[in-house]
Design a protein that fits this description.
With 672 residues, the chain is an alpha/beta fold. It contains 24 helices and 20 strands.
């Protein structure tokens, strides 16, 4: 019963509780009143019977004493007039009935419906007998029964009224709770935390609803923050933080979607790879802050150069990609690429200076053989590198020949992994000549790769691959050790104290223990540190000024000579350049090659010479191939030169003969 009651709705339970409470209170109140009435009426009846017994006893005690039973009976008959007396009897001293009376109303009365009162009859203090008077309690019972019937009707009426009132009153409690329950159910089902329960006052239910609404406020606020954070994470996961362009992941997703929509017409989808030429030089020379601003400006120009339907993404570093949607022909892609190249070639005004870059763009259209994401990206990348090799600031479409070049690059990478162990590398040496005396002042060590299948591979082909794969570090250490041992061998053979210049890569230079590592290799070779010249490119030195100065100072303190290679091709900061403990500047051969006819190269060379003189540095002209070039650089003030005019890079044995033949001062130009 109670279980079924607990399962009833709240409004039903409240209605029942109110009704039961009202009816119970009414019944209990009536019962108390009825009990009090019954007790009072019965007390009145008993008191009345006691009076009757006392009066009748006083009147009949004399007759009892004279044994006059008839007189006693006549006197008892007078009680007929009292409606409350139904019987009376007088008993003698032995307890034997002496006389009795029974009213006609006593018919049908039983012991349960009568009340008896007995009194002793005393004469002069001596017991003479007793009298018993029976009263009729049926009237009292009838009155109580009638009241009970009336009360039942009242209770029923009260129940109906209570139900009507309870039905309305329970809503004050049940409806707010029901609204709360329904809202909780909707929130739990829909996870919609914007819903609220209508307030219902300031009682406990109202406080509960208020607390629930406040909880929803907090959950909604937390949920809103979570959604914002999730959206931000989603954006960060698929967009470049610097340019806000889609990143590589989102670009691949968009490309896959475009290919799926193109379906049987993959040629309507194209990919452009865009690489910013000379960006690394600017970034390393002017700092990452300027580089970041340049990337943002470049991203804006690329976006302005394409159509609204195209997707521009930053893949990383200075590489961007463009998804071309709905192109009808190769000329469509060419127009977009041409506009993009033109826009990026315009000067960028950043940090109160004009910066110049260009773009190398590779284009690959979808085809039956290139209709998946990986192939399109790979082919566009290969076309971009072909644009770089072709002189940069241009675009190239992918062709099948480029795929063969990519395969060759992969083969070269795999070959480099075993070339060092297989002894396929060799070091060639090119002499450095003092122009005033034509004396050999040193040699530059240059690595060569004698491939067992492809023959002699020039450094321009395998050095970039070695840099990218990380093999440049062990190769560089091997070149340094080999060159130092060879220089010591020439010295032991009496060929002079020749200084050997060795180029180092950025990977080697970035190591924290670079000076100590170089010194340990020289110790093992037996070559004094004073016989080593460390050559570093201009771009490498300007990448991190403070670190460069620290490393160069350490090498200088150990006794090594320091030279800046390829000077004039990067962005040197003169304020930092004068702080570096350099011994030589090597003018890049790109400026020497145009001498003496190219006035532009001539003016640049003059400026470099003037700068070197002001910093008290020796100048080496690289790539001298003709007597005219030799005369010009000497007249401009270069102390030293190297190039094919004096001697091409040669194996160690040939260099030994060269050193033996030119130990004395002589005219090496005519002899070369």
């Amino acid at each position: 019963m109670m279980r079924r009651f607990r399962d009833r709705p709240l409004h039903s339970k409240l209605t029942v509780i109110i009704m039961v409470t009202c009816c119970t209170a009414l019944v209990l109140g009536y019962a108390a009143l009825a009990w009090r009435y019954a007790v009072g009426e019965q007390h009145k009846l008993v008191r009345h019977l006691e009076i009757v017994a006392d009066v009748t006893g006083a009147n009949t005690i004399s007759a009892l004493a004279f044994d006059d039973a008839a007189w006693v009976r006549r006197h008892l008959q007078s009680l007929q007039a009292d409606p409350l007396v139904v019987a009376a009897a007088v008993y003698d001293q032995r307890g034997t009935m002496f006389a009795s009376f029974q009213a006609r109303a006593a018919e049908g009365a039983d012991a349960a419906s009568t009340v008896r009162v007995s009194r002793a009859l005393l004469l002069d203090g001596e017991p003479l007998g007793s009298i018993a008077v029976d009263g009729d309690a049926r009237q009292l019972h009838s009155a109580l029964l009638a009241d009970a019937l009336i009360m039942s009707v009242i209770v029923m009426a009260t129940g109906l009224v209570s139900w009507a009132l309870a039905t309305r009153l329970q809503r004050l409690v049940s409806e707010p709770i029901a609204r709360l329950a329904r809202t909780m159910e909707r929130v739990a089902t829909s996870r919609d935390y914007s819903q609220r329960v209508e307030p219902s006052g300031h009682d406990e239910v109202g406080m509960l609803i208020g607390s629930f609404n406040e909880m929803l406020d907090q959950i909604e606020s937390r949920d809103r923050r979570s959604r914002i954070a999730a959206a931000q994470l989603e954006h960060l996961a698929h967009h470049d933080a610097l340019t806000q362009l889609p990143n590589r992941t989102l670009f691949r997703i968009r490309l896959q979607q475009a290919l799926g929509e193109a379906d049987r017409q993959p040629q309507r989808v194209g990919v452009m790879f865009v690489d910013l030429d000379r960006f690394k030089t600017i970034n390393d020379s002017l700092g990452h802050a300027v580089g970041d601003l340049l990337l943002q400006e470049a991203a804006g120009r690329i976006s302005e150069s394409v159509r609204e339907t195209d997707v521009v993404a930053r893949l990383g570093g200075d590489e961007f990609a463009v998804l071309l949607n709905g192109i009808r022909s190769a000329s469509d892609a060419a127009r977009i690429a041409s506009k993009l190249v033109e826009q990026l070639a315009r000067p960028f005004r950043i940090a109160e200076q004009d910066l110049f870059i260009s773009a190398s763009v590779g284009i690959c259209r979808g085809s039956e053989s290139a209709k998946d994401v990986e192939t399109l990206l790979k082919n566009a990348d290969a076309a971009m590198y072909r644009a770089k090799e072709g002189g940069r600031n241009d675009y190239r479409f992918f062709s099948t020949e480029m795929s063969a070049d990519a395969t060759e690059s992969l083969t070269m990478t795999n070959g480099l992994a075993h070339a060092l162990d297989n002894g396929e590398f060799a070091v060639h040496y090119q002499p450095r000549i003092e122009l005033a005396t034509r004396r050999v002042t040193g040699v530059e060590a240059l690595v060569r790769w004698q491939h067992p299948v492809h023959g002699l591979i020039p450094p321009a082909r395998f050095i970039p691959v070695a840099e990218a794969s990380g093999m440049i570090e062990p190769i560089g250490d091997w070149v340094l050790a080999t060159a130092c041992r060879q220089a010591r061998a020439w010295s032991d053979a009496g060929l002079g104290e020749v200084q050997v210049a060795v180029n180092f890569s950025a990977r080697q230079f970035r190591h924290a223990d670079f000076p100590e590592h170089v010194a340990s290799i020289l110790r093992r070779s037996g070559l004094p540190m004073q016989r080593l010249e460390v050559e570093l490119t201009e771009t490498l030195m300007m990448a991190d000024h403070d670190k460069t100065q620290h490393v160069l100072s350490a090498l200088k303190a150990m006794g090594a000579s320091l030279a800046m290679d390829d000077f004039g091709t990067g962005y040197s900061s003169l304020s930092y350049l004068k702080r570096f403990p350099l011994d030589r500047l090597k003018i890049d051969q790109s400026f020497v090659r145009g001498l003496p006819a190219n006035q532009h190269d001539l003016q640049i060379t003059k400026a470099i010479v003037a700068l070197a003189k002001s910093l008290n540095l020796r100048l080496v002209a690289e790539g001298v191939e003709t007597p005219q070039q030799c005369d010009v650089v000497q007249q401009l003030g270069c102390e030293e030169a190297q190039g094919y005019l004096f001697g091409a890079p040669m194996p160690a044995a040939d260099m030994a003969r060269f050193l033996a033949a030119h130990q004395c001062v002589g005219d090496l130009v005519t002899g070369s």
